[in-house]
Design a protein that fits this description.
Helices cover 42% and strands 12% of the residues. By secondary structure, it is an alpha/beta fold. The strands form two sheets. The chain has a five-stranded mixed sheet. The longest helix is centred in the first third of the chain and has 14 residues, at 11-24. The chain starts with 10 loop residues before the first helix and ends with a strand.
């Protein structure tokens, strides 16, 4: 049960372990460094590339195992047009060229404009990148990292880190995202059999 060695520890102990693990991973470190120099407003590397890296580290799997892409959020409400976001996505594609995984860039100021068409329900108009991760289908996935102005890693984890370190996928019922919670949970268990999915 060594993979659970950080489960149940204090948030500060878990925070230190989490940042140590993700910053030591070559893929995540490269993504974070490039994201910093891309210099998007209110940027955050979020979700799978982070918690999957922790699970890989704790179960002895290689860097990048089970990770489909790197999610990079930013928040810019100065221009909510599709064209403005698309220009950032194209610039980011050049900037991240050569990274081991594709990078998916999304302006969190625009999510409320396309979310209802894609998911069949409204979502709030977010006011920051940090706020949007609090609406993920699973609390476990609500985690983001960026460099602050002083060059230190800053962690955003509205629900803490114990679910990640306990290999437990816990539903976030703030929106009706049951299908997403179950689909992502099933996929995670296929990669990391140690995971427990808490029913919706």
């Amino acid at each position: 049960m060594d993979h659970l060695r950080y489960s149940g520890l204090s948030f500060e102990a878990q925070r230190a372990a989490f940042l140590d693990i993700v910053s030591a991973d070559p893929l995540v470190r490269d993504a974070l460094e490039r994201a910093r120099t891309l210099a998007l407003p209110d940027w955050l590397v979020v979700s799978g590339a982070l918690y999957n890296t922790v699970w890989n580290h704790l179960t002895g799997k290689p860097s990048g195992y089970g990770i489909k892409d790197v999610d990079l959020f930013y928040f810019d409400d100065g221009d909510l047009s599709y064209e403005a976001e698309d220009a950032v996505i194209r610039r980011a594609a050049r900037h991240f060229d050569g990274l081991a995984l594709p990078v998916e860039v999304r302006n969190q100021a625009r999510v409320h404009l396309w979310y209802p068409q894609k998911f069949g329900q409204p979502c709030p108009r977010y006011t920051s990148s940090s706020q949007s991760i609090g609406y993920f289908a699973s609390k476990t996935h609500a985690v983001g990292v960026r460099y602050d102005a002083g060059g230190e890693l800053e962690l955003v984890a509205p629900f803490g880190l114990d679910d990640i370190f306990s290999f437990r996928i816990t539903p976030n019922r703030v929106m009706d995202n049951q299908r997403t919670h179950e689909t992502k949970g099933k996929r995670a268990q296929e990669c990391w059999p140690e995971i427990t999915v808490v029913p919706w």
